[in-house]
Design a protein that fits this description.
Length: 288
């Protein structure tokens, strides 16, 4: 396809999974009704961002994949004829959990899943307690509406992740996300933190000559204020569309996929890569 319309679902936290599914389904239907063909939900879309503290009882929020949520979303994708990216808390086995996104094609087929590779551990983001690092590698999927890659939140800070996914042929990188300000830091660092988050992803779009869609959560959880502002950047790193800070909404925006080819022809970063010099990247630090 020469063009594809994206729906970036910027959702919030709800009382329970039933309410969350109902509210997010309304936003998905809204996006599809406005022409969205690939729709992406935010990280851990149907539960609170529970990683603000360590509590073993919270593992009960997880579910298997495939499971009830992927089955429901597959039926919805088939009904609406859209591709759906569905980020969930995956229970893989006893005591083994992942932060995962399922990719569902427009006919309802679950094409596969991506497990978050980079797991943070910071105040308010106690993710290493809950999530095992992904073991499926960096993946792309040929969907009805384009070749896409999915990375999750903390992955968005790593150029290696974006590069490997783009090298596998992704035209659009999707980053379902849950990131925000801690109240003690917002006044002094809030503007700089948001600038860094947005800038690094715009840089991935430029360095890889592809579209980047960041899909963030909004609202509050404990001491964290999620900053929303989901956006799409084109291969030049320009922000094509951006959502609000605080509203739950479906941001619908169209991409011209020919821009990926056109950009890479005039700025051929892939052609000029010196792959013979990059072996040291596999080392932790170049001190020995």
């Amino acid at each position: 396809m020469s063009t594809v319309t994206l729906g970036l679902i910027q959702g919030g936290t709800h009382a329970d999974k039933a309410e969350s599914h109902a509210r997010h389904e309304m936003l998905i239907r809204d996006a599809a009704g406005r022409g969205a063909q690939i729709v992406c939900l935010q990280e851990l879309f149907d539960i609170p961002y529970f990683c603000t503290r360590q509590d073993t009882a919270l593992f009960d929020l997880a579910e298997p994949m495939p499971g009830p949520t992927t089955e429901r979303m597959a039926a919805l994708a088939k009904e609406l004829g859209i591709v759906l990216i569905v980020p969930l808390f995956e229970k893989r086995g006893p005591g083994l959990y992942h932060n995962t996104a399922a990719v569902i094609d427009a006919d309802g087929t679950v094409l596969g899943k991506y497990r978050k590779m980079h797991i943070p551990q910071d105040p308010g983001f106690e993710e290493k307690f809950y999530f095992t690092p992904g073991d499926l590698g960096y993946r792309v999927w040929d969907t009805k509406f384009g070749r896409i890659g999915v990375l999750i939140c903390w992955d968005q800070w790593y150029p290696e992740a974006a590069r490997l996914t783009a090298l596998a042929g992704a035209q659009i990188l999707f980053y379902p996300t849950a990131i925000g300000w801690l109240s003690a830091e917002k006044a002094a660092l809030g503007t700089a933190q948001h600038c860094a988050w947005e800038t690094v992803q715009r840089g991935h779009a430029v360095a890889n000559g592809c579209f980047v869609a960041a899909v963030n959560r909004t609202g509050f959880q404990d001491d964290t204020e999620f900053w929303g502002q989901s956006f799409l950047a084109n291969p030049y790193g320009e922000i094509v569309a951006k959502a609000s800070i605080s509203e739950q909404e479906a941001l619908v925006v169209t991409c011209k996929l020919q821009e990926v080819e056109d950009f890479r022809r005039i700025w051929p970063f892939f052609r000029d890569r010196r792959i013979d010099t990059y072996t040291p990247l596999t080392q932790r630090y170049l001190d020995e």
